[in-house]
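Lab meeting minutes (informal)
Scribe: AK
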Amino acid sequence: MLRHSQHRPFPLPGGFWVMKQVWNDLLFLHWPADEAELLPYVPKGVELEYYEGRPWVSMSPFILSPLMLRGTPPLPFAGRFLELNLRTYVSRNGVPGICFLTLEASSRLAVAGARMFAHLPYQYALMKAVRQEDGFHYNSERRRFGREAAFSALYDPADDAVFHAEPGSLVHWLTERYCLYAADRKGNLYRGHIHHLPWPLQSARVRLETNTLAQSYGLYLSAEPAVTTYTTRLDVLLWAVQRV
């Protein structure tokens, strides 16, 4: 993976990666969003990014398996779990990245570790994913300050064709991101670099059954996403987050 970096918008970071994750059966759902609703979640020191004048948010349910620290086998009790992200798009000094509003996960250990060491807004949720003949059934449910933050969908790839997003396209702008930004409780800003090969994307067939996750954060999105894709598997390397 490290030999192939020409697709990145900026060079590989220095030092060694510390963790490898594999994301399986990942659904990408993307919506244009309202700037005023998003700005409260953008940390100081980064700027909200826009595509053709609109900010965007994305949700991505997937199975994380395995999770391994460098030089170790998969972690016991946290080597496999479900995850559901809600994110938006930001940059700092011209370096594009992502900012998470929440990362729902089915592993309490993974939630505690990510909150402590990466300053990411992970939260534990009751989650279930089952593959059946009619597709992939994915469910997540949590209550936040008395509000339901639930997600339920049936999805699968629409066909077998795999493609890479065209540079300059909306899908490329949404998917090909190689760092994340997060702030701790004191407002200190951190950046974490990641690396993977270009996203192997497929057209997706999706039926959203419940989706109150964004609404629980004060985001009011259209009932149906503007863009959807599916990825069978993506191998990802992560570097330790550093204060910037």
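Next up, CB showed the second protein from the same session:
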Amino acid sequence: MTRVRFPSLGTGLLALVVTAVVCIPGAQADPPVDPAGPAPAVPAAPTAEDVQAAQERAGAAEGDVAVIQQRLADAAARLDAATIRAARATEAWNGARWSARNARAAARQATADAAVADQTLAVHKEAFRDAVITAQGMGLDISVVEALVSADGMDTLLEQSSASEYVQSLFDQRRDEYVAAASAAATAAETATAAAEEADRALADARAARDEARAAARDAEAVTARIEGRRTKLVRRLARLQGVSVAVARARQEAVDAEAAAEAAAAVRAAEAEQAAQDKAADKTADEKEPGGQEPAADEPAPAPADGAQAAIAFARAQLGEPYRWGAAGPGAWDCSGLVAQAWAAAGKALPHYSVAQYEQSTPIGRDQLRPGDLVFWADGGKPSSIFHVALYAGDGRIIHAPRTGRPVSEESIDYWRTPDFFARP
């Protein structure tokens, strides 16, 4: 009896073994030939173990997705921290430069004032000398005139002239004018010296702030490159786990990030609205208790933006896509306060290249008062002195700004990032 085996029908399929009994001793039967080819294999039903293994793999994939998303969130937090450090350093340098320029201007003015005081002193000194010579011609002791050329000539002259009744009326006015001019000249000289020293200190501070800003910018660039590379790898892994393209995975993650930012901003706005409602209710209660209280006037609609604001917005929009560079105010590269300063300069209004000073030189307003052209600020300490970022409000809940290293000038939601802290109108 001879056993005849058919070859395997394919990888992963159950091999079919056929045993044939041949009646002719010593003979081997050929396998029957199916003219239609081999019959298709029927997949085996999954076992309970197969189902459990698949569920475990799916659960593991979901766990991996969660881990990757957490890593992406951590990377975003590190990038955010680096961005804030660099922004603080940049605005500190802008502030130091602004202070140094002001100090140099003050020193120049003080030097000019000192020169004028010296000229005034020379005029009064000459007038006093003429008065002495005139008095000497009227019989004043010659020693008084000789005192003019001595080391302490004017002081000696004052002592001698004040002792003489004969020349008292002549010298009174000239003496007082000279003393006042001498005092003014001394004060002006001291002010000029102090201003020059302050200018030197401000310049040294600006140089130190520049070095800190440069180091912070380099650190931010390195962190940005490292984190962006890491994020790219994580998004690719996320795409494989989710069975989608990298572009889709990236878009999904950006949507998740945007949704989280929007939720955080909405929570802050809700808290602010609740507090405002409580304050309004308290004010209303107080008004009702006061006799003769008047109904508050209805809110007036916000006026349309002025031509200057439109010009500022148009200028800022024209820079969209241009790179961020710390300390830059164009052309071709910008930091946050540099873009805002040049945008409003195009509208005919001068603002410093320093976000804190931009707030100080504008009129503070509330978020609900925003209109196109207004300024939006982010701070790190709850006070205007801690402002480190500024944007131009474009209307409809959007801003135009120079965000950070690695991101060009952009137009996006006012709540794309952290909730703004201050608002002002130039």
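CB comment: The mean pLDDT is 75.
No objections, moving on.
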